[in-house]
Amino acid sequence: MYHPRFKGNHYEMGKKMGLVLKKSNVHFPIALDVFQKKFGTESTKIMKDLFPEIYEEIRGITDQIEIDNNKFASWLMCMGCCLDLNENESTEIRGCTAFGFVCNNKVYYGRNNDLPPFLEPVSKSVYYQPEYGNKFILNTSAFVNGEEGMNEHGLAAAMTFVKPKINEILPGINSVFIVRLILEKCKTVNEAILFIKKLPVASSCNILVIDKIGEMAVLECHPQKINIRQAEFNIQNNKYIIAVNHFISNSMRKYDAGNPKDFMSDIRFNIVERAMKSADIYNPVEYLKNILMGKYGLMCQYPKDMNFTTIWSSVINISNGEILRAEGHPLKKKYISDTRLKPVLP
Questions:
Q1: Is 101 helix (H, G, I), strand (E, B) or coil?
Q2: Can you list the pairs that 193-196 forms with residues at least 24 positions away whose Cβ atoms lie under 8 Å?
Q3: Distance between CA 197 and CA 205 in Å, rounded?
Q4: What's the mean per-residue pLDDT of the chain?
Q5: Which of the four, 13, 60, 119, 339, has the lowest number of CB atoms within 10 Å?
Q6: Are the beta carbons of 201 and 211 closer than 8 angstroms?
Q7: Residue 339 three-state SS
Q8: Three-class SS state of 309
């Protein structure tokens, strides 16, 4: 994983990202069909109107790498939504398991980021220090947007992909940009919920938010409806919440074009839920690692013929700001401490 640090106004941060890409001689074979071009262009206009600073960051990248701004921005807007299409159906390949829990009055978060292996070498853990906004770590397989992270106020956010119905996708903000925006602009779960409710959501997705006082929720999002799934409690009356790659709530299942068995989403949910209900958690950080490493059941052990793997794994003690990350498959890579982000003291 690359570990860039970006500081300043958004255009300057974009230019710095563009310089990294230019020095790495990165090329972008962007090929969008008619639907994607239209969706991407209209979504870019929405982003420019609602969050001009993010648009400026994208412009900084495209000015630096000398690529068509609308084409690049449209490509970003399609991610986690409608980037890979085949016969009018989404074929994006994304797994991912994210969850949080409270133990001994401390708040913990874990995630496996599961994607095709070719994305592992280009993945990044970016430390953002915007001129106006929260400082935050954003873990991403892309640029500007991202799959998960935590900010200086102890708010963690993560997305998990839910297969959309193509005819229900609307121009708007996709899941990976929602994560980025929450980290930069919100301090608590309640702020994040109010923020998301005002957004024009582009397509189906889960957004998990957890803060340092132990508030947690999964927002099951769709352009027509946002359902807030609250935390559950184990026998010790400790909170926990889980997000995988399908909608859990009955009221949202009609907006899910996938199958709970896709990428073993239902199996992963059940394994984490069983682990969360346990009363025998003596070392929460090690317990988190063991769940993510698959020691309690299938989590990252995808069959080789799927061409699909865990490309990074995160463990965070939100209460004290400790971030650990295995940059690669957690059965092959050690969890290493990331000390770039300094939490705001009470």
A1: strand
A2: 193/217, 193/219, 193/228, 196/221, 196/226
A3: 14
A4: 94
A5: 339
A6: no
A7: coil
A8: strand
* Strand-pair category, 335-338 with 322-326: antiparallel
- For residues 29 and 37, what is the distance between their CA atoms, to the nearest angstrom? 15
Contact 257, 120 (CB under 8 A): no
Residue 272 token pair? 């984490």
pLDDT per position as a tens digit, 83-92: 886 766 666 7
Predicted pLDDT of residue 8: 97
Tokens of 132: 């106006």
Is the four-CA dihedral 253, 256, 262, 264 of positive or negative sign?
negative
Tokens of 291: 């769940």
| pLDDT per residue as tens digits for the range 119-160 | 999 999 999 999 999 999 999 999 899 999 999 999 999 999
Residues 6+ apart with CB under 8 A from 158: 96, 98, 109, 111, 147, 148, 149, 179, 207, 208, 243
Confidence band, pLDDT 50/70/90 cuts, at residue 29: confident
d(CA 218, CA 202): 17
Find out whether 315 and 110 touch, Cβ atoms under 8 Å: yes
Dist CA 150 CA 100 (whole Å)? 13
- The string of pLDDT tens digits covering residues 49-68 is 999 999 999 999 999 999 99
Looking up tokens 């913990």, which residue turns up?
108
Q: What residue type is 257 in one-letter code?
A: A
> How many C-beta atoms surround the C-beta of residue 287 within 10 A?
22
> What pLDDT does 91 receive?
66
Phi, psi angles (nearest 5°) of residue 12: -65, -40
- Assigned token pair, 148: 């998960």
pLDDT band at 182 (very low <50, low <70, confident <90, very high): very high
For residue 93, pLDDT beyond 80? no
Q: Which helix (H) or strand (E) holds 69?
A: helix 69-78
